[in-house]
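hiii, so i know i said id send this last week but things got crazy w the move. better late than never?? heres the sequnce for the chain we talked about at the cafe, plus the structure i predicted for it. fair warning i was half asleep when i ran it
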Amino acid sequence: MLARIFSCAVIGLDGVIVEVEVDFGQGLPHMAIVGLPDAAVQESRERVFSAIKNAGLFYPRKPITVNLAPASVHKEGPAYDLPIALGVLVLMDQISPQALEEALVIGELSLDGSVRHVRGVLPMAVVAHQQGFKRVFVPETDAAEAALIPDLEVIPVPTLAALFNHLNGSQVIPPHPPIQIEELEAVVLTDFQEIKGQEHVKRALEVAAAGGHNVLMVGPPGSGKTLLARAMPAILPHLTIEEALDVTRIYSVADQLPPDVPLVRTRPFRAPHHTISHAGLVGGGNQPHPGEISLAHRGVLFLDELPEFGPRVLEVMRQPIEDKVVTISRASGSLTFPANFQLITAMNPCPGN
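okay and structure toks below
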């Protein structure tokens, strides 16, 4: 009997449904994972075996083949541990396949069977809702993030044993209550009222905030350039619900969403050091991930000590500033990340001025 469990991959900022197929193979006991997996997915073999064993469940001493379809999509990260483990349990008739109908499963397994945090839960929940899935099984720490999506039942999974009992009906896990986005408040870290003096600079920043202009501040060290820049998000308009979800999706994929903050309601403020590479600024990697300019989307990107940044780093920012998006091309394809930010820069006066 072939077991099928649905999971999800993240390509760029979007989720892609992945079908995890588990079947018996041939030869000595082992687990073979195919479907363009990376090293983290290949290591699922050991995690799944130990998690099932330590959860008090039966792991078959037979050859097992796991296929992650579609094979054309690159699979990375440990989010497939839990669906693979459930596929093994369904294959051994320890779980009924009907219990996982219309369900999406995401989660990394520890060796003791506990389910750990994974990145990109929000875009995965979005695509699950769009594809007609009724419920998602996610790590307990990520349940609030998935609960931002309306009309989707979110089951927080603490351990593999708890999920096994839930699917068999012996101990049901209550779903996470839906989160009302309107009730989440924005937190202002630095406010203009904390800054004494510099009235002309504050007036200039107010004009820049009203018109969406970029700013260059020139002044001696200690004059308050960095503090003024940090106060800039406080005078920008509050994020709308659509903008907040847009920003949260980027932070979720970049794995920079705080565990106790399911939704980003404050405009981002990013201040990379001048030693940053151009790939760290605009994004990149073998499988491209968002860079600092995408993490500053809908917010402020602050470049302190502007002349210290390399010419190549500054040159690659020209196209994102003009187009509000950044496109990263690789041999396997190209991805586009949003980059609609307000640029605030600062520098010391030139010698002799």
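btw The CA atoms of residues 28 and 207 lie 71 Å apart. thought thatd interest u
miss u guys!!
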